[in-house]
DNA sequence: TACGATAACCAACACTATGTTCATTTGTGT
DNA sequence: ACACAAATGAACATAGTGTTGGTTATCGTA
């Protein structure tokens, strides 16, 4: 990415394509978007599209991939050892990361069902959580633990998604605290 | 559905198309499957396909829609009043429902990310849970409750999905009990 | 069993998007 | 200013789409 995008022209065309892609995605489902229409909207030669992407799905994948790499960088900054202790801060950081990338977050939440991004996020967090569990407890009760980990990870990601759909208004710090309570204490405090 | 599918010919072609669709889906992603290839595999005239479906996505939607309607019938049999009391049984029933429809369940879990079925299931359970909450508690703390409900619903659905991917081996009754514990008591018993 | 209805078949059709080519023009980094 | 690379525009063969009309085969029912 660094090597290739040195050229201003490349950055410009990619940006134009992405903007038009976002607009189109707000109008119709992904499978109805054609290269022809996209490039006409962006006022880019159709051939140029194929210099950068294989097809529409490749474009979508690249966008999600880049967002995902940034996400990994964010949670990497918290080290692997203290995920449990810093649960609240990590979650808050993720919420605030999405807020900073509002434009893409909205694009992704426009996909009718799940996006690749969130699916990657789920398996990444699952992987990390599982390895931490095994580091601490070995393989004891690992099946139940796997289901529970899967349960809470999916829960958190779904919180992220509905938070986005609600307009990202609630404070990231509060959302992080909420997520932590859901994960560690269940519904106790919510149901009273 | 009842009116049209009286004719044996229709049932037969639809079945053939679905079988070939399942096979193709195991080979390649949905967006790479063409009507032409599908009908050739099924040994059905291409024009016949268009008598029943608008396009590939319509075929996929109809399959998921039918499975979803059966699902709704299953949870409807538990009445709306006692969702909370019968949590375990309802969840067990859902697990066992998917086990009975193994073939379709596997098809759906083959979609990388975009299964309409599970997305419908999520919003349906969410809707029911929310209305039950409001019936019992009014609108008190409804925001936190909404996030928590979203959290656990997504968690349960994700349990279903990973259970399918593990081969549906664990007993539906046990899975139902596990889900209930996760929902009501959080990780307490799992983490010890 | 016979009959009217209709689903499936077949061939053909125009149409659209795809992916690739090549020569040309424009803009870039150093 | 220069060499290089990206973007353009036009053209092309290809493949899938969606629909047509006429024919054959199969269906449900009386």
Outline the structure in words.
- The structure is a homodimer of 192-residue chains.
- The first copy, chain A, is mostly helical.
- Chain A has two domains: 1-53, Orthogonal Bundle (Arc Repressor Mutant, subunit A), CATH 1.10.10; 68-191, Tetracycline Repressor, domain 2.
- Chain A is 74% helix and 0% strand.
- In chain A, helix 4 packs parallel to helix 7 and helix 5 (87-100) crosses helix 9.
- The mean pLDDT of chain A is 88.
- Chain A binds a DNA duplex (30 and 30 nucleotides) through helix 1, helix 2 and helix 3.
Radius of gyration of chain A: 19 Å
Under CATH, the homologous superfamily of the largest domain in chain A reads Tetracycline Repressor, domain 2
Name the largest protein-protein interface in this structure. Answer: A-B, 39 and 39 residues
CATH architectural designation of the largest domain in chain A? Orthogonal Bundle
Instruction: Write down the CATH topology of the largest domain in chain A.
Output: Tetracycline Repressor, domain 2
CATH class of the largest domain in chain A: Mainly Alpha
Oligomeric category: homodimer
What secondary-structure arrangement, pairings included, does this model have?
Two copies of one chain form a homodimer.
Chain A: H1 8-27, H2 35-42, H3 46-52, H4 56-76, H5 87-100, H6 102-110, H7 116-137, H8 142-165, H9 172-185, H10 188-191
The first copy, chain A, binds a DNA duplex (30 and 30 nucleotides) through helix 1, helix 2 and helix 3.
Short description:
Two copies of one chain form a homodimer. The first copy, chain A, is mainly α and 192 residues long.
């Amino acid at each position: 990415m660094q090597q290739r995008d040195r050229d201003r022209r490349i950055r410009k065309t990619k940006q134009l394509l992405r903007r038009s892609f976002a607009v189109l995605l707000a109008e119709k489902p992904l499978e109805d978007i054609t290269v022809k229409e996209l490039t006409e909207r962006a006022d880019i030669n159709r051939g140029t599209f194929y210099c950068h992407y294989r097809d529409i799905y490749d474009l979508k994948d690249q966008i999600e991939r880049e967002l995902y790499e940034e996400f990994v960088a964010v949670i990497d900054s918290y080290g692997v050892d203290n995920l449990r202790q810093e649960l609240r801060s990590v979650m808050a950081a993720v919420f605030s990361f999405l807020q900073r990338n509002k434009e893409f977050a909205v694009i992704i939440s426009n996909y009718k069902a799940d996006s690749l991004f969130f699916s990657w996020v789920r398996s990444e967090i699952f992987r990390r959580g599982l390895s931490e569990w095994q580091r601490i407890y070995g393989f004891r009760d690992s099946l139940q633990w796997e289901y529970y980990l899967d349960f809470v990870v999916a829960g958190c990601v779904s919180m992220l998604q509905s938070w986005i759909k609600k307009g990202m208004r609630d404070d990231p710090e509060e959302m992080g605290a909420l997520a932590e309570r859901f994960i560690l204490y269940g519904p106790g405090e919510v149901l009273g």
